[in-house]
Design brief:
This protein has 267 residues and is of the alpha/beta class. The chain contains ten helices and seven strands. It has one domain: Rossmann fold (3-Layer(aba) Sandwich), CATH 3.40.50.150. Helices cover 45% and strands 19% of the residues. It is globular and about 50 Å long.
Length: 267
Amino acid sequence: MNEQHSKWETNELVQTFLEGVRGAIPGASFQLEVLSKIVNMWCPLPSRILDLGCGDGILGRMLLDAHAEAHVIFADISDPMLEASKKKIGDNPRATVVKADFATPDWVDGFEVETPFDVIVSGFAIHHQSDDRKKELYAEIYGLLCEGGVFLNLEHVSSATPSGSELFDSFFVDHLRRFHSNVSPGKSTREIEEAYYQDKKDNILAPVETQCQWLRDIGFQDVDCFFKVFELALFGGRKHPTSACSGSRKRPAPADARVRQFSKKRR
């Protein structure tokens, strides 16, 4: 396991992110609204959804609640993140939580029994990968989608200029301060800023325009950036949108069988 992965295996860091950063992301509810609208328009009746790099499962849980016939797989490399997902999801039979490392191409092997997916979403996870790996991963995601399938990435992207990056830092830290003034008023401004800039060191950001072009080159259609505020962006596309996103595919196995199949793949 590399250093980046080992960081997210610590309960302390995971809780710091989920409680001190994820909840403070500016415009979070609007981002979810936009993502949900795109899925509803492009794939109104999904049967299989993948939340890749799920964290505590905020994207997948929203789609799980919105689509009563869908089965959602929540995948992450971090055991503490997966535990957080399980607590939030509860005993929902339409949800499966699995450990997956998308830093290498081998991650797709564990998903063969579930493909193709109607919808694949990811939130603030892929930006930790190198640009070469991002491009490879987007191609792997394309291969897991059914015709008409939708990929949406809610992501931290790079600014066009250093000045733009400074604007975003100030904007985000202001939100962190306001957030912590309510949930943890004893935390100092210095502590908040140090935690933010320390976490930022691990980011490998790419411009949203560049990433959209990667998707087009792979074969995604209707590619666009649907939401952007400074370095926060929602972008993606769909695979052969002239085809329906669900249809004549094999019937999904029962949830307990799915768990066994995933377990068998990982042995």
